[in-house]
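Hello Y.,

Per our agreement to keep a running log of every chain we model this quarter, I'm adding this entry. I've kept the format consistent with earlier entries: sequence first, then predicted structure.
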Amino acid sequence: MMKKIERAAYFLKENMQLFRCPICKSDFKQVKNNQIICLNNHSFNISKKGTVHFFNNTSTDQYNKDLFESRKKIADSGFWDPILEEVISHMPKGSGSILDVGCGNGSNLKMIHKSLPESVCIGFDISKQGIEMAAKYYWNIFWCVADLADTPFSDQSFNTILNIFTPSNYQEFSRIIKSNGTVMKVVPNPGYLQEIRVLKEDKDNYSNENVIQNFKEHFNEVKIQDISYKKEIPKHLIYDLFEMTPLGWQIDEKKKAQYINDGDQFKVTIDVTLLIGK
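Predicted structure for the entry above:
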């Protein structure tokens, strides 16, 4: 069985055309000595975990290992499965290249790859800890640390770009998506996790109207679909539910303890909009 570093090196050799150097924007020419090297000899190491760090600045993101661990537990419980099943239903069958933007711990792309095993799947995030966790659990996908503002991918490389609960960069998307490609974005609706939102001291009036309008302005053909359902969270996962979202960080610890201790489960609303742009 190949080691993770060997598997990553093989993937890069087979799919080098999908990448470009984020420093000088030139093509990569070879993978050698566990490095991917561009035409101007800029090199990036393949880690023992099978990842590549194309973005080396220290992230100031608040997302840490504990958050990603909690998010993985929630994902493994099937929390987002109906959303991902709907995303998969709109994707072309057979082989193709899929990029998950802001992939976090990799749970979403893992499920999609399982349904479309012939696809070439790449996930990237600015968080080193998220990428390391993705590589730890999901070995048959390529994971890398990269910057959304300046991605290490070639022009017109991907059939599908996934943008699930993460920021967008439509200039980069238009550069790296194929001419007949699809961008699929999932954004929360005002009812998303409303049972958690009402526990916050600062009860803001969230709206996604500007996000949806901005998406519409960047694509010639747009489909919009609302997805809404309830999910029961068992008692042993309630703490992870609060920890996996920034909404939970804004709730008093006493309120969290009350919901964790008072019942066997906690029912929450998942309410999102799926945007599909050509």
